Amino acid sequence: MRQKIRMGMIGGGRNAFIGAVHRMAANLDGLIELCCGALSSNPENAKISGRALFLPENRIYGSYEEMIEKERNLPEHERMQFVSIVTPNHKHFEPAMLALSNGFHVLIDKPVAFSLAEAKALQQKVKETGLQLCLTHTYSGYPMVKQAKQMVANGDFGKIRKICVLYPQGWLSESTDDHNKQAAWRTDPSKSGISGCMGDIGTHAAHLAEYISGLKITKLCADLNIVVEGRKLDDDGNILLKFDNGANGILMASQIAAGEENALKISVYGEKGSLEWHQMDPNNLMVRWLDQPMQIYRTGNAYLLDIAKQNTRTPSGHPEGYLEAFANIYKNFALTLNALQNQEKPLPQHLDFPDIEDGVRGMAFIENVVASGKSDLKWHNFEI
Amino acid sequence: MRQKIRMGMIGGGRNAFIGAVHRMAANLDGLIELCCGALSSNPENAKISGRALFLPENRIYGSYEEMIEKERNLPEHERMQFVSIVTPNHKHFEPAMLALSNGFHVLIDKPVAFSLAEAKALQQKVKETGLQLCLTHTYSGYPMVKQAKQMVANGDFGKIRKICVLYPQGWLSESTDDHNKQAAWRTDPSKSGISGCMGDIGTHAAHLAEYISGLKITKLCADLNIVVEGRKLDDDGNILLKFDNGANGILMASQIAAGEENALKISVYGEKGSLEWHQMDPNNLMVRWLDQPMQIYRTGNAYLLDIAKQNTRTPSGHPEGYLEAFANIYKNFALTLNALQNQEKPLPQHLDFPDIEDGVRGMAFIENVVASGKSDLKWHNFEI
Amino acid sequence: MRQKIRMGMIGGGRNAFIGAVHRMAANLDGLIELCCGALSSNPENAKISGRALFLPENRIYGSYEEMIEKERNLPEHERMQFVSIVTPNHKHFEPAMLALSNGFHVLIDKPVAFSLAEAKALQQKVKETGLQLCLTHTYSGYPMVKQAKQMVANGDFGKIRKICVLYPQGWLSESTDDHNKQAAWRTDPSKSGISGCMGDIGTHAAHLAEYISGLKITKLCADLNIVVEGRKLDDDGNILLKFDNGANGILMASQIAAGEENALKISVYGEKGSLEWHQMDPNNLMVRWLDQPMQIYRTGNAYLLDIAKQNTRTPSGHPEGYLEAFANIYKNFALTLNALQNQEKPLPQHLDFPDIEDGVRGMAFIENVVASGKSDLKWHNFEI
Amino acid sequence: MRQKIRMGMIGGGRNAFIGAVHRMAANLDGLIELCCGALSSNPENAKISGRALFLPENRIYGSYEEMIEKERNLPEHERMQFVSIVTPNHKHFEPAMLALSNGFHVLIDKPVAFSLAEAKALQQKVKETGLQLCLTHTYSGYPMVKQAKQMVANGDFGKIRKICVLYPQGWLSESTDDHNKQAAWRTDPSKSGISGCMGDIGTHAAHLAEYISGLKITKLCADLNIVVEGRKLDDDGNILLKFDNGANGILMASQIAAGEENALKISVYGEKGSLEWHQMDPNNLMVRWLDQPMQIYRTGNAYLLDIAKQNTRTPSGHPEGYLEAFANIYKNFALTLNALQNQEKPLPQHLDFPDIEDGVRGMAFIENVVASGKSDLKWHNFEI
């Protein structure tokens, strides 16, 4: 790389949670420069937020439309190269389409859009433009998740037979949605979409299961629940799964699991052994065999597979966490964009970030889960 | 107690697994004496087994019928007081009925019978005779499970909203059933009944969920699987649950979860907090609150509730395990029988062992799960 | 075995802690029968205690002298075969000597005596009589400790270079000794001996380090502390160690580590790898290698070494605990006595219990530690 | 802040380990800009390294002398504000002195210098210039370490009685020093100083113990070892400690603990309870009380003290790690420099980074430990 990759941010002004996370992830490796932003729909807030991020005054924009318009007229070596969209779900689609239409790559916080239809339109646009779209399913950025995926792909566990993925959170246990900005939009159908919990975290769980196993969900049976009275969207759900190789599974996601923090965990069972990974203890990958002592694979060790090592920054015993996983997505995306601007073929390990195909599957997951939730029949075919 | 309680054992000869566990559990506290046995249907094996247990020759019987016949004719202070039935499922009902009919209390390894019909007949017989029937759902014997149950009953967590109980085992991951005596009968419908995995361990999971929560399953949606080719009974399954207070849940039980040992674990979520317990780490009860640090309640400490203390034998930091949990069931049963022989009212804490009501629910669980597994409809009403 | 091995107990009446533990350990496998007792120096208490244990009236004795005298005059197939001495330290020596002198084997709770001189006299007596003396250093009874010992002996870790053994307890954090019977004698030099904490638990830690490593302590540097004001004996200490192969080590034992239960843990480091074991999580043996994923060896699995399997009662995933470890010592001792009475050579795996040699080393440990604690010089040679 | 704080780096060229860590830590929060560097003493390497970091050609310097000379002549709003010194120990002192002499603040990787004399000279220079010197004792940057420190300071545990700090690593288990650049200089007395293991990681352990407890080491008794043949510096050691309030302790540090990664852990025992923290599981702070269930305080929760919250970036359940802890030091240092340039008083929470006083104590620790190691006397007074 000759220069840092230049990023413009849409959303993520003061007090936004996920915007700050995106910026730390983009900062960590020193490969990406935040060069401009449309950080808030409130112009005052946009200004204050932009200054706090040391943006030059003339690149603090009042709207994403203005940003895209002005940036595309800057000299090529100066203008932003991609937009990072960190707004609520209902504000993903339009800026993403506009950015793509104007030649900018796009990175979007998950879920990729408000509806499956929007996601498919984005997919079409990505195909037409040949631009990159990156989706931040953070949990697939952890090195031990990549180790797990590659061990499965290498056949270490034989055929996969069963997957259990549980994602309990407790932060929506009480009806305090009005007081909490993060809760407010996530529980509002006009901003979040047709699902609450399943859209917000169920999609992460489903993506993780498919990412590690290399399998696709083909059928599901969903029990969606509104546990806290007065909510309009599911805050909890349990799902039975079938995968395309015949494996079965369960997916549980809940935001009313009082006392739980962000306890995503997954077990994948094959013929010869199994793996278990907990997001809150991410540097340990537990591996169990039929007739051998359990093993714990740990981040940063020489015995790991290349894909795990390539996504690690420190020696073993120096814990890496959520921000490093998030930064792996940004880093791989940036290295891919760098290859493209040099008219090189991106390396496979740099293309290892969730993309619009994952985005479409995520939106399909939401729509299929909601449809199944309403059905009296046990099995619902996963359709896109 | 003036004398040890006298036990006769049915089944449990040499090489039987669970019989030896029952004897260690009965031995531990020195309250019970094995006085006779019909340890095997093979007379030679019965003899050898009885001698190895130091039984007097005249009380090593060739069949349970002989044992019950001869023992009832012994003087009251000498004859056995209860039978412990540790045979495979299809051989529970007849000896239990005969023992009850002849005035002997009964302890049976779970599940209580081969079918719901048998269980109901036993229930009727227990009612008629006024005798005690104890069922060894071991996991409810752990002190921290009792602590959990009582904390829920005390309302510490508010209304219970969700229960996740997972029971992965890996010992039937391969088709080696013929070579393994334990596996052989459990996978044979003529000995095990209409379910394999759900009958063997799913019933434990369901009992644990109902025991801790004080709730009853009212609806379920089961996905039962035969994963290892050639088996005739389910070796794996996933179930969605509804409970009588509106709570939802999931129950997973599998015997093909390669690499797992006996990893029963449960999470119970209430409005104010939640608890988590793992059978393989049984002296820790993890308790999480909405706004307080997570707590770990540990066996043997002064801060525990009485019911936990009454089922503990050593000071904190001295790990108690599976055999101690099993022994708690035997001990409470023995203390109940002692009270009855003294014409006293058994203490509530001594009546805290699984009984014929639990046995009937367990058999109903099996039958409802199997029916749901065959149904195309999502929800199946739990019926007894 | 044709008959159970017959045990007489000295001490261990009502309200005694360790006596009940010994009885449960002796009961568990059904190989040992408590046939008589001198359970208390208070005759009333002795009677009540004996009846509660279902002893026949004529074998509830008022003193150990009476017991030994009367028992030796009983027919051989009826009289006790060994005494179990569970009194405080200052009351170990005399009954042990008398029992040995009268042809009874002896089992003693640790430390074996009140002083090194007593221990050596016992050692001499054992040699003369050819009888067995068993010492209950419980922690060496755990199956994963035996696995660890054998892996070290097999050279799996190469030469051992370093041992860290920590034994924090918190139960004497406050000056409540008068109210607690267990605390009272342990902090009283006339009953406990010249050391408090190091005698009570430091000896366990030292025994565990030597047992697993197969090494002997040759030099030490002790910092003994009386932390709670008014105590007369150490309640805390830290020790630097050298072993006979040149390895170094640390041993920490404390009874004022507020909040700790019984948190004995050990790490043994060799050239090629290391092991770690925690008494409070006893079924896991953590094994680390230079270039391989960490392994966890777990009780009850087929991959374990014979010595671990021989000391395990249940399948993997069924946690075994402190009482099972204690029972392993009783079981191996009983099987040794059985071989001897059959004039057979005891099997090596049955002789795997701590004996008078360990008892002498334990008392020497106490005396050397106390001497080092008083010295201004860094290193003190371990002398017996 | 109006502008990012500008940093010049000394050392940290390609293939250096710790330089990259410093840059990621400096990048994370977007408050610091790497504006120039003297990244290698090899000019070719310096150039290549500088370009890889996107430095402008004219600010890639061939030596730190050149960098300091040229930067001080740049306009104030452009020139670097502090130097980050990430060279081996023997190359800390001269650049630090030169930077301070020319008005630049200094950040140094630990230990602060090659000898105590150098450290004292730096201390004197800091006093004279009024500039800031920050030392990267990373482990005190973790939020749960800060929580621990503040709970101790608040008196939650009463008087502190005992501290155990263990720091086992295994990466120098074999004599491969020549092939490993990191190992090579650390085991070379001409580059590392008079101690290997104790200088490299023992200082971290000692700093952590003093940081959390608020106590100072007053006496020590050290056993330093060269375990791998042929080494010239200690690669292992065990130390007995006394603190200024009378508390005792142990400190173990080893680089030959085969299989261990970076397993720094500490227990601090007070009259009323105790805490335990493991660097490899940094988001959990285990807290034990005399009569209450154990608690686990976890990063990111509302119940934590302010100082922990101020050093956390993500919500609970999103693990933070080593780089975030490291970044806390950089962030607090940058916020302090920002206050100073605005002629404001730095906030106490921003001054919470290790400084030259810690650096002097660290060097004194090394010299006292080495002196004690050579002494035949048990106790050596800690002298500065």
UniProtKB/TrEMBL annotation, chains A, B, C, D:
Domain of life: Bacteria
InterPro entries: Gfo/Idh/MocA-like_OxRdtase_N, Gfo/Idh/MocA_oxidoreduct, GFO_IDH_MocA-like_dom, NAD(P)-bd_dom_sf
Residue ranges annotated for the GFO/IDH/MocA-like oxidoreductase domain, each copy included: 145-276
Domain Gfo/Idh/MocA-like oxidoreductase N-terminal: from-to ranges: 5-135
Matching SUPFAM superfamilies: Glyceraldehyde-3-phosphate dehydrogenase-like, C-terminal domain, NAD(P)-binding Rossmann-fold domains
Gene3D superfamilies per record: Dihydrodipicolinate Reductase, domain 2, NAD(P)-binding Rossmann-like Domain
The species this protein was found in: Pedobacter montanisoli
Name of this protein: Gfo/Idh/MocA family oxidoreductase
Lineage of source species: Bacteria, Pseudomonadati, Bacteroidota, Sphingobacteriia, Sphingobacteriales
Pfam families: GFO_IDH_MocA, GFO_IDH_MocA_C3
